[in-house]
């Protein structure tokens, strides 16, 4: 027996908007951290003539991965 579940499109739209805002904040925060690390790398290279930070990678997790 299959039960029909009413879909509330307004609620779905609100959830999508909230998720989009969260993902943007997440992306911007990651970008800010990467910028600060890049500044540290440049500063060490300029001031100390060496750089203890060899390389840095970042990635955004998908919303599905965050939920898991």
TrEMBL record:
SUPFAM superfamilies: Nucleotidyltransferase. It comes from Heyndrickxia coagulans DSM 1 = ATCC 7050. The keyword Ion transport does not apply. InterPro entries: GTP_Pyrophosphokinase, NT_sf. This is Putative GTP pyrophosphokinase. GO terms for molecular function: kinase activity. Keywords: Kinase, Transferase. Transmembrane segments: none annotated. It comes from the Bacteria.
């Amino acid at each position: 027996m299959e039960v029909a579940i009413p879909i509330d499109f307004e609620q779905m739209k609100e959830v999508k908007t909230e998720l989009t805002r969260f993902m943007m904040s997440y992306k911007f925060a990651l970008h800010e951290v990467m910028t600060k690390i890049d500044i540290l790398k440049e500063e060490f290279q300029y001031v100390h003539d060496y750089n203890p930070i060899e390389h840095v990678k970042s990635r955004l997790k998908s919303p599905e991965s965050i939920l898991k």
